[in-house]
Amino acid sequence: MKVFLAIAALLLLLPLVGAEVFTVSPGESIQEAIELAQPGDTVELKDGEYTEDLVTVRDGEPDKRITLSGGRGAVLKGTGKESRLFQIHHSYTTVDGFVLDGKIGKGDKAEHYVDKGIYAHGNRETRVIRQYGEEFRSAIDGLIISNMKIINFGGECTRFRYFVTNLEFFGSHLENCGVYDFVFNGMKSVNGETIYLGTSSNQISDGKNPSDEIDQTRFIHIHHNVFKGLSNEVDAKEGAQYILVEENQCSTQKDPNSGCVDSRSDYVVFRYNQIHSNDGAGVRIGGHEVNGKQWGLNNEVYGNTFYGNKEGALKLQTGQKEHPHLCENTCKGGCEVSGSASEGNEDMEKKCSDLMPIFWVDDTKAAPDAVSVGAEASSIGGEPDDAADADTREHEPEADFDAAVEGRAEPKQSGKCFPVPIADVKASSEDGKHTVHAAIDGKALTRWSSLGKGEWLEIDLASPQKIDAIEMSFFKGDERTQSFEVAVDGKNILQNQESNGKTLALERFPFPKAVDASSSVTIEGGGNSQNDWNSMTEVIVCGAEEQQQKSQESEDGLCSTIEKLDIGKVSASVDDGKDRAATSVIDGDLKTRWETEGPEEQHISVDLGKPMTVTELGLAVFEGDKIKQFFDVLVETEEHGWEEVVIDGESLKSNGIESYDIGMKGVTTVKVVCYGSEDLASGEGIERNSFTEIELYGCV
């Protein structure tokens, strides 16, 4: 299970003592409320549609943020008079929970779309901030964009330009960005990033920034988002550094010459993302040379899952000849690496070593020690700080800062979830497809679901533990709230709890006090705000103290020796027993096949005869170079029954055997559920499911 720092989004929105809450309803002016809001205040949007173009007017403070928040029912559309729907020019601003929709007409013309959604531009002189034990320059510091839905923009959905620092962007859904070029302009150009970071090297002298210099936007954390854009979905330009992009889902990118996520800069980390179904590569790395400096170096790509990317997992245009930090990725169908710098970097699945410390994420965002030591301007048009030291203002910390962070250990943070080992999990019931074990499998795409108030799941801990919180993420967590209660060893700890309804990311639910020697945690569902279903995608039990973890090396491979497994028998929903028989998939002959035609959702199952450890599934599609097959993969284990391991799978353009990770013990049966196919040339759907071979690998 990937361990990450979960943000307690609700805590960000709790009003401070003495702070004002300005409530705005449809028909009233959000901009007027923004102009009234002082540091610590919140502007709260009631459900409904708003037609305005917004701009911030003042900074918050590190411990007194200015917040604009609303639910999914609050939808902000532009007037069409401005090219930017929401302009942010000030520090310590939080934007949370509502919808930005750039479509202002029917949608069949380019002029029906606003150009940009959020445009954060530091259009003022920088100040010097002391944080992380160093000094750096900033024009906008400490932005938080959380739990938003941002859709339908002609150009970039969001852009962060000119010395934007300490940005956190999480729990959001971004879709249909780049409509101008990708829908109406025939991709003659390919502008329209989902998240654009920094200033392109060919734009630093366009007169739009306060100075013509490399834009040192930095210390960025982008996590737990769903990206379904058209152009690059995270794009770091030359000079934007110390960026962590993790635990996101990234798909539907349409530019074959680029990647779903892209770094044209240095010190950008892409880790633990699901990157799939893109026309370009999964990740692209490569920058320009600017003033004698080559950009696109010292980036890291590890722990990601790649599949269905037409130009491979990675396109590497710049970088070291042998890059140790392209490692421990999982590729379904192969880890193809292309590009002018690919030689020597073909192995993306090797073990990682000497990874960069992510120091800017472990420190608290917008921490009190982020203190200006030479503010050149506190607001647009503001006066310089007369007391500032001119020498400090002119300090350029780039080189000595890079040297200072090299080799620094990652600090620990209080309040972090320390996941405790889990022995087992059980439930009052399951819906059959979404089993209880899915709630602890570390996969955001799977879930446990059970219908009815009072349904429960119980987690048995591997040993008695001192615990102080649980973290949970919820199916459709950005559309509805989930009600529940929590008991530890049969005693109620949390009552009348409710998720925030704004995020797909993990939410933290702290206990009133730590509970010693705990053996089990029970979560009782109370239905959700739409119906009586209880559905969790992930549950983590948090220890009060960091565990002494055992080495995970033995778990990286479930088998000391992996071999092809003997399959006992094959069965299918349709089997003619002749030239299209189910047994054709295990005869070792790619010229024979199992095939069904007609209604969708057919299946074929292979039975191992006894429990085995299965590490990998191999599938070969008939005419796979012409046809894309759609499918899910389920496995049955003795301990947990049926579980999904591949969801919304798509075959690659290949007649060979494609590999899909399973990584489970005690497997008795593997089932491939088919949903028809698609002609790669025409894009037309075909009511046909056909495989030539199915193979399983692992150990007894």
From TrEMBL:
Limits of the F5/8 type C domain: 551-699
What does UniProt give as the signal peptide span? 1-19
Give the span(s) annotated as Disordered: 371-401
Q: Which PROSITE patterns match?
A: FA58C_3
Q: Which UniProt keywords apply?
A: Signal
Protein name, as recorded: EsV-1-164
Which species is this UniProt entry from? Answer: Ectocarpus siliculosus (Brown alga)
**Gene3D superfamilies annotated for this entry?**
Galactose-binding domain-like (2.60.120.260), Single-stranded right-handed beta-helix, Pectin lyase-like (2.160.20.10)
User: One Pfam annotation, family name?
Assistant: F5_F8_type_C_2
